[in-house]
Amino acid sequence: MTPQFILSCIYFFLPAYFTNMTPPLLKRTGLFNFLAKPVDFGKKIGQNPILGGHKSWRGVIFGLIAGILIAGLQYWFYQFPFIQKISLVDYRQINVLFFGFLISTGAIFGDLLFAFIKRRLKMAPGARFLPFDQTNYVIGAFIFLEPFLKLSYFIWLTIFVLTFFLHIIVNHMGYWMGLHRNKW
């Protein structure tokens, strides 16, 4: 595994990273509070929320927008030889809006799926759920993208492992800077 391969995996997954980062960052700004309504509409299964009030339409909508915009930037940057060299896909040969939509929707789906699972396990929002807190959006993006892109499983495994460690590092930095309430 070369540094270029690692960079290629990170670059490919940027739309999902931004999709995942956007909801908590936007929540801290207080912008678009009218969209800060729970995706599950506050409904419960038994005594437990379906997803929890922290999963909002604001996060879903703006996470999706962020991911699509990053995919669009990847398409634009593909004109540069360095980007062509590190890209896992030829952005000229794919429908980049569809790619951005799928990777972002998959990332959101993964996040919501594991929020649903955590609530069924009676785990509170923010409770540690290794390794899925760090990688749920990789699993979701894989489910949504794999039927269309057919990347090697080694690439997906690499993205999974890289994301696990990157997520922990970034969250620790955010915690120490007072931007995140949990280290994980």
Automatic annotation (TrEMBL):
Record has Chaperone as a keyword: no
Protein keywords: Membrane, Transmembrane, Transmembrane helix
Transmembrane segments: 59-77, 97-117, 151-170
InterPro entries: CarS
Highest taxon in the source lineage: Bacteria
Protein name (database record): CDP-2,3-bis-(O-geranylgeranyl)-sn-glycerol synthase
